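debug: dumping io for the single-chain case to check the tokenizer round-trip. Nothing else runs in this session.
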Amino acid sequence: MKNRSSFLTSVEQNPAIPAEVKNQATTELQRDVSFLSDAQLTDALGKAGTSPEVTQAALDANAEARLDGLRAALAVLAAAAILALFFTPRIPTTQPQGDRQVDAGCAPTGCATRPAVSVPAAPWRPR
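debug: decoded output
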């Protein structure tokens, strides 16, 4: 939606684009065409018989609209990331653990020659 309105605004404010093309662009975009590649736009304008100046002006407006859409999407992502920061204090800094069996002096894979000892878990405290 942002891309479409940005493109229409750019087209309507561009004096190089004739009123007939502006009206056609408005009609076409109301059919819910969200994004157009440069190739699709060039092809459509070529079929409509527009001049190279009008085609270039429309391509520039389309490129600007795509950038506006990208900026808007990145702004939403940034806002979501900042909002998520408010929930991070609730994330524990250490993992709670129960009593576990540890082989004293052995690697994590264990060794069969030493007896296992019980190690109590350290109490978990939020920061």
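debug: round-trip ok. The first strand starts at residue 100 and ends at 103.
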